[in-house]
Amino acid sequence: MALSSLATLCSSPPVSAVRDSPAVSNLNGLSPVADDAAAPSAFLRSGGGGGDLKEIKQLHCRVAKKGPTHNNELIAKCAEVGTPESLDYALKVFEGWKEDECVAGSLFVCNSLIRACSFAGLGERAILVFVRMLEMGVMPDKYTFPFLLSACTKVSWFREGVQVHGAIVKMGFAGDMFVANTLIHFHFECGDVVDGRRLFDKMPERNVVSWTSLICGYSRRDCPKEAVSLFFDMVEAGAVPNSVTMVCVIAACAKLQDLKLGERVHSYIGNLDIEPNGHMVSALVDMYMKCGAFVTAKRIFDCCVERNLVLYNTIMSHYVKRGMAREALAVLDEMLEQGPQPDRVTMLSAISASAALNELFFGKACHGYILRNGLQEKDDNINNAMIDMYMKCGESGLACTIFNSMSNKTVVSWNSLLAGYVKIGDVRSTREIFDEMPERDLVSWNIMIGGLVQESLFEEAIEFFRMMQREGIKADKVTIVSVASACGNLGSLGLAKWIYHYTEENVIERDMLLDTAFVDMFGRCGDPKMAVQIFEKMEKRDVSSWTAIICAMATEGNGKQALELFKEMLTQGVEPDDVTFVGLLTACSHSGLVEQGRRLFQSMEEVYGISPKVVHYGCVVDLLGRAGLLEEALDFIKSMPIEPNDIIWGSLLSSCRTHKNVEIAAYAANRSPELTSDRTGIPVVLSNIYASEGKWSEVAKVRLKMKERGMHKVPGSSSTEVNGVVHQFSSGDESHPEMSRIAQMLDEINCKLRDAGHVPDLRNVLLDVDDHEKKFLLSRHSEKLAIAYTLISTGQKMPVRVVKNLRTCSDCHTYAKLVSKVYDREISIRDNNRFHFFKEGFCSCGDFW
DNA sequence: GTAGGGTTAG
């Protein structure tokens, strides 16, 4: 942590506003001992201008009786000082001016005053001066208008600007190049691209500023392509770009995120012999960062000795965006030691960095600094960023205090709060805020949908997506990434196809992230062909894209293909991450590739420097257990350097079930920490193992234990989609409206299967009842209900797709195989672990799962 | 005298 920064941030002299701050009481308690002497002087500087105003007043007293000429002197002095106070003072003097006091030189003074107002960003005062000078009969000249118009532009006073434009034309100054240049700028800032361009085209002669205004205008109006192409036109036309032109065109390249183009434009700086300045360095660093050329950007930053505020802010914001929050704070450290005084943009990055690092202490220090310097006044962004920071640091109370104190809550303020509650996982508050919002935009919906997905409320996420459509909000790629994830988790191929077509029909921008989400979605929905098709068409693929396709292969049970893809990924120079290994190990496990799995696990740390997490150990336990190597799996667990969790023991247990090993099962169950927690997986599996071996007294013991702890078994449930409607069945469920037809069908299937030689495996019934009852219960497993319903509700040869919440039992597996043959239907069952594709009596898993 | 870089939420 940047301690010196903290010390400095906390030791600045407080102003009255700090006392009213919600955070301040805490901050005062936390602040290191104030040591003003150690703080950089810039930090202690007060507002400035107070002394100058005193000087102005003294001057006023001295010249008061000397006549009108001296008023000029006084106003010129005010303009020179240029603070709001001094300009107000000038206006007051100006107000008292009488017409006959105007003398030669007054026009010059008025122009200077308007110029000063424009510089200070005080458009209103500039207009006042202009109106007053007209009243007094001081006629403006061509020097009056550029600053007057630019003052209007700066404060977005477009109505007044249009009036000024009228005055310009009436008074005959429209032909002046300087005035025309300002008019171009004004029109572009109004959003009036066409008129701006027309003005440029009509100019009889142009200078570098004319070109630059046009290039800048296009770039800022989100037409960076036109901006860059105009730059080349300009060079072609023989006009010589200067450093301002370069800044504008570099900014346009940054917007395009086109590194090649950026480098080409960069080379002009040397070729045209343009002296590099601070503005240009900042623009270049920003451009290279936005184009992903981090090393080049960093080199330019490091080489620059005279680092100005914007350059620091640029590098800081990019560090934060790239997840390098510590580095961002190190930059702040350097600024506080030697550099320019941090401003509101600096603090926005500092707050973001605090939020990313969960550094509440530092965040509060930033809050204090912001209040002491009044940076939060008139700046909603700062307040919004602080809401975000406090929410991320777990201080929802402080976040709400800031939120409630804001007089001008924008949709962004609401969204920041909303996103904060999503991050804590507080679905109820999120929903309440969402309902309470006076206005919702695309981001609000995206936060809500993303939040529901995060909380595994996939159906609700889809429902919100539909609601969003009904309200006429057009989804973007961020929405679709969340929705695709929801579809993938629901495993509904119909929904997946629908959302995919929605994206194509609505021409929603595709990027690597979205394509990767689609690959993942189709992988999970049992359409690996589609996943591969999308993957192959991708222009750029990162580690997540490769991982998604590897996982798709793993889910399908295509271990060999998964390993092939991994090889290809390495050839293309993409480094695997820990998630990639989850996919690879799962793939090996599902395909019985024990040796390959062992080797991959070994290589994780040795070759790729990735320390295995619990989930990877779980995969290996699964790999060994499924292959029947239960002793080795147990030894492996015993040798783990980290504490095995419920999932590890659960995985071993379920292998014990498959391979009927009661001893190891009992051992594992007793080691599992879950028996003392309130989740149910392990006791259920254990009781199932005892049940399948007919050890009913043991079953009763485990069940009693569960009951005492208030646990209950999660009921098996399967869903299937028929004509776009999802039908849900739970085990033994008779509530479906078409239950009598389903029962009839179940009987028919049972007869046909019996004729085909199928004997129900009654060990799958985990209750102590007679065989007749067992047969009945077995025939009502949820996947069987779903299969039967789909068979009677869909046409011949239509595939049957079932999604199950638990692992499918061995009887249902055999059942599905035979149904696929007897009824000549392709059947897929996605259980909580993988896909099974049944066709002509065989399953894609090769009975290995 | 006109034109320029960095900005919060998904």
TrEMBL record:
Each PPR repeat, start to end: 106-140, 207-241, 308-342, 410-440, 441-475, 542-576
Boundaries of every DYW domain copy: 757-849
Top-level division of the source organism's lineage: Eukaryota
Gene Ontology biological process terms from the UniProt entry: RNA metabolic process
Keywords: Repeat
Matches recorded under InterPro entries: DYW_dom (IPR032867), E_motif (IPR046848), PPR_At4g14850-like_plant (IPR046960), PPR_rpt (IPR002885), TPR-like_helical_dom_sf (IPR011990)
Family: Belongs to the PPR family. PCMP-H subfamily.
Protein name as annotated: DYW domain-containing protein
Species for this entry: Eucalyptus globulus
